[in-house]
Design a protein that fits this description.
2 domains, 539 residues, Rossmann fold, Cyc_pep_transpt_SyrD/YojI, ATP-binding, transmembrane helix, ABC transporter transmembrane region fold, alpha/beta, nucleotide-binding, Cyclic peptide transporter
């Protein structure tokens, strides 16, 4: 269990403390068993003495307190580690480049932060109790050895056989678990498609039926895989329980036939063996839960390592960048790798100049490279060649974040946060006039740094996204098809009043648009075709 070793290394409590508490719990359990046996024997001669009663009470109290302490420490430590892992994964997502995140996929990230973390949390009680019962089995076995070596031999033979059979089947169970996880990831991907593709599904009833049918098939495969695992564990549990009852039968009926010294201790040894049924059942039930947690931890640590590998440079400069007066692209380009690792569609080389107090329109058909150009411009993907410079300074990887901090953007696939993250409270009041101008003052308010609602139409949400970009008040504003979701009134307002106002404020404004009716508003129009600028005109 390499992942649990990593988990233990991150725990603040000394493992030796946990070990000694577990041993103390097991010893107290064994003492309770021994006291019961002695008291039962003394009952024939008048009953147990006060000393035995006190010893029983002390051992019981010690068992309860140590078990409670171990479970509490284990829960606190494991939940603390899970919280740190979750935080590291979230921070890793924030720090990773877009290519790494695209490779990891949303479904895997969501599964790690929800399902895997829950699996680790669920194992905490079983991990604590299972460890205690494992040590208890060891001490009870030693107690059985003290009572009768023949009975001890039978117990050891049973335990060795049970462990051997279990580990023989673990490889198959791991494969089935992997298949179940793969099916579950397919289900997550399918559900994401169902939620995001509602517009397309509404326009084609047959497509909707096909999507649901495909999801039903994936769900059945997931159910079959998970049911197979649970059925195997149920059979394992029943087989081990049955074998243990057979062991008790061997101790009662067979062992007395091969030894003459067993009769006096037969009842006590059998009682001890029966006492082991509970811990054995707990351990057997704990194994699949802990196995799921081990699998989840492996996935969490693997995701954390992948995110670490995809992190941006850790030597990024923290000094802020002066407001850009000029952004220059010189032979900037990007090449997409295809499925075989070769290069497919490419964008560039791009040469362009964007100045403060100017508006630039980017136009072009679908697939012309506009989206890739924007990702290059804002540094979401690394350039394959060429340079991007600001105020004469070539932007290196170390200065990329400082450059990005000068940009505001509303992308075509923008995400609107409910809270105004990263925006100081004194800027919130500045949103009022633009909210009113964009017809949103009766729809949404800013309360304690958050929007009162996001239940708005597509056009209203995009107008609200522009409000957020406006109160960020950064020197560069990038808008991707902003007017596409707006009615004629707000489209005209955008082109004839809002954009000129940004130019008057000295911003570098870059808009992707197809509205040729308003091309005259721009100082520069750049057309893209096949990944390159093919036309440029000053207006």
């Amino acid at each position: 269990m390499s992942s649990f070793r990593l988990l233990r290394a991150e725990m603040s409590t000394n493992p030796r403390v946990m070990l000694w508490l577990t041993i103390l719990s097991a010893v107290s359990t064994t003492v309770v068993l021994a006291v019961i046996n002695i008291a039962a024997e003394q009952a024939q001669s008048g009953g147990a003495g006060l000393r035995l009663i006190l010893l029983f009470l002390v051992a019981t109290a010690l068992y309860a307190s140590t078990q409670s302490t171990v479970t509490r420490i284990c829960a606190t430590e494991v939940e603390g580690v899970v919280d740190r892992l979750r935080g590291e994964v979230v921070e890793g997502i924030r720090q990773s480049d877009m290519q790494s995140l695209d490779g990891i996929g949303k479904a895997r990230a969501f599964a790690a932060l929800t399902r895997d973390c829950q699996a680790v949390s669920r194992c905490v009680p079983m991990l604590a109790v299972g460890a205690q019962d494992t040590v208890t089995l060891l001490f009870v076995s030693l107690y059985v050895a003290w009572l009768s070596l023949a009975a001890f031999g039978a117990v050891v033979l049973f335990l060795v056989l049970a462990v051997w059979l279990h580990w023989r089947r673990m490889a198959d169970l791991r494969q089935e678990t992997s298949r179940a996880e793969t099916a579950e990831m397919e289900l997550f991907d399918g559900l994401e498609g169902l939620l995001r593709g509602q517009k397309e599904i509404r326009l084609n009833e047959r497509r909707g039926h096909d999507v649901v049918g495909d999801l039903a098939g994936i769900s059945r495969r997931t159910r079959t895989a998970k049911s197979a695992i649970k059925q195997r564990w149920a059979r394992e549990f029943a087989a081990i329980q049955l074998a243990f009852y057979l062991l008790v039968g061997v101790m009662v009926f067979v062992v007395p036939m091969v030894t003459t010294t067993f009769h006096a201790e037969a009842i006590q040894a059998t009682t001890a063996a029966m006492f082991m049924i509970g811990p054995i059942g707990t351990v057997v039930q704990a194994v699949p839960i802990i196995g799921d947690a081990e699998h989840a931890l492996t996935g969490l640590y693997a995701l954390k390592d992948e995110l670490r590998g995809g992190r941006r440079s850790e030597t990024e400069s923290t000094s802020p960048m002066a407001p850009p007066q000029e952004i220059v692209l010189s032979h900037l380009g990007y090449r997409y790798p295809d499925d075989k690792g070769d290069y497919g569609f490419s964008v560039g080389p791009l040469n362009a100049r964007f100045r403060a107090g100017q508006i630039t329109f980017i136009t072009g058909g679908n697939g012309s490279g506009k989206s890739t150009f924007l990702r290059l411009l804002v540094g979401l993907i690394p350039a394959s060649g060429g340079t991007l410079s600001v105020n004469g300074e070539i932007i290196t990887e170390e200065r990329m974040q400082a450059y990005r901090d000068t940009l505001s953007a509303v992308f075509a696939d923008y995400h609107l946060f409910r809270r105004l993250y990263g925006i100081p409270s004194e800027a919130w009041q500045a949103a009022g006039p633009l909210l009113a101008r964009l017809g949103l003052e009766s729809k949404v308010r800013i309360e304690n740094g958050a929007f009162s609602t996001l239940s708005l139409s597509a056009g209203q949400r995009k107008r609200l996204a522009l409000v957020v970009a406006d109160i960020e008040d950064k020197p560069v504003l990038i808008l991707d098809e902003w007017a596409a979701d707006q009615d004629p009134h707000f489209r005209k307002l955008f082109y004839e009043e809002i954009l000129p106002a940004y130019r008057a404020r000295g911003k570098i404004v870059i808009c992707v648009t197809h509205d040729d009716r308003w091309f005259g508003v721009a100082d520069q129009v750049l057309a893209m075709r096949d990944g390159a600028f093919v036309d440029g005109e000053e207006t």
